[in-house]
Design a protein that fits this description.
Layout lengths: L1 H6 L1 H25 L2 H6 L2 H20 L4 H5 L1
Helix pairs in contact: 2-4
Amino acid sequence: MPEKIKENKGKIVFIIGAVCLAAGAVLLILWLLGIAAIKAAFSPVQCILAVVIGALVLWLGRLMPKSEKDAQN
C-alpha cells in the first residue's frame, strides 16, 4: 500500500486541495446566505482561509509529478 501512495502522491495532494477548496467555497456561500448554524460556527475569515488554503494545495498538487514515471522523465 505505501508504494501506491508514493506513486500517486501528486494525485492525492491534488484531490485534497480540490476537496478543501470546494468545502471552503460551500461554507462561504452558506455564510453569505445567512444560514444561522454556519454563521455561529464559522467567521467569514475562516471560510476565505479555507478557500485560499485549498487553492494553494491544489496548485501544489498541479506542480507535483503525477507519478514516479513522470518524475523520472
